[in-house]
Design brief:
Strand content: 15-25%
Order of helices and strands: EEEEEEEEHEHHHHHHHHH
Structural class: alpha+beta
CATH architecture: Sandwich
Radius of gyration: 19 Å
CATH class: Mainly Beta
Number of domains: 1
Largest sheet: 9 strands, antiparallel
Number of helices: 10
Length: 311
């Protein structure tokens, strides 16, 4: 349910709601030039160095997503908070296990996830379209579903060398430039359609299905769905569900900006849900919270910083 933010140079600050429970951490979202838009969805930065975070503020919430990630920890380190999610809410007292390294490769997630930051935090997450990861590295997204693993030994040698070099760059702006300079020639060499724009999940999902259908003549629907799952790591039905939920939250944000008192029941109907309960179940499954509760937490709680970047 994340969308591509407007291009900024070199990156944009995430909007921060004045609230005592939200820290002054620097959360930045950077998006690439158009030539990389079908490959890179965004780069996310979080820098809380010099800021006292309480245990609740050290939790970070992420929704189910079709996207893949490469993550760097430049300062501090992260831990996976053990679920099960979305059956219950995470707390700082939950059992946790440290991530395997400070360089992580993540796949699509069919469920929400929560991490916990330890120490002074400074990190970066490169967010990639799953089919792009496969074309660029040969790594199958399906092998990474619901996983964050040590990138060492998985990334091709030149990718690992590039990822390691990111650690010695002077600042985040230089890292944005390094992403573009490294990925642009490689993506131009392998991208399937130079004219496709990387916009919302709905557009990408439709394009993925069209590509699968046109790959060879005479493909059945089941063959197309298998091909989409191979490219994206998740079945078409899951991708369509995420697309629809993104559309619903887009509609809510647009209504708020227009001072329109839109109701979730109306949004559910407009976005193709059977009723508001259907929308609520989908939102719980993909984020862990019902729509209005999620909206409140995004506004008021530090741990939802990643959501605020995209709203």
């Amino acid at each position: 349910m994340l969308h591509r933010a407007p291009r900024c140079d070199p990156y944009t600050w995430a909007p921060m709601t004045p609230n005592a429970s939200i820290s002054g951490a620097a959360n930045r979202l950077w998006t690439p030039r158009a030539s990389l838009s079908t490959c890179v969805r965004a780069v996310m930065f979080r820098d809380a160095r010099g800021i006292e975070l309480d245990p609740w503020q050290r939790l970070s919430y992420f929704p189910a997503t079709p996207l893949c990630t490469i993550s760097w920890w430049f300062a501090g380190h992260g831990e996976r908070v053990n679920g099960p999610f979305p059956e219950r809410e995470a707390t700082p007292d939950d059992s946790r296990e440290p991530f395997a390294s400070g360089l992580l490769l993540g796949g699509p997630f069919s469920l929400p996830s929560v991490s916990y930051s330890v120490g002074e935090v400074h990190g970066m997450m490169l967010v990639l379209m799953p089919d792009a990861l496969r074309l660029l590295t040969g790594i199958e997204p399906s092998s990474l579903v619901n996983r964050l693993v040590d990138a060492r030994g998985l990334l091709p040698d030149e990718w690992f060398e590039w990822a390691q070099a990111m650690l010695s760059l002077p600042d985040d702006a230089a890292r944005c430039e390094a992403v573009e300079s490294f990925l642009t020639p490689r993506w131009q060499a392998v991208r399937p359609d130079a004219n496709t724009l990387g916009a919302r999940y709905e557009d990408w999902t439709t394009h993925l299905a069209t590509r699968a259908a046109m790959t060879a003549p005479g493909r059945t629907l089941r063959q197309v769905e298998r091909l989409v799952k191979r490219w994206a790591g998740q079945p078409m039905r899951e991708l369509q569900g995420i697309s629809r939920l993104e559309q619903a939250f887009y509609a809510r944000v647009a209504a708020e900006r227009d001072d329109d008192a839109a109701r979730w029941a109306d949004i559910a109907a407009d976005c193709g849900y059977a009723d508001q309960s259907h929308l609520t179940r989908a939102t719980r499954r993909m984020t862990g919270f019902p729509p209005e509760e999620l909206r409140r937490r995004i506004r008021e709680q530090e741990g939802f910083w990643a959501y605020r970047m995209w709203m």
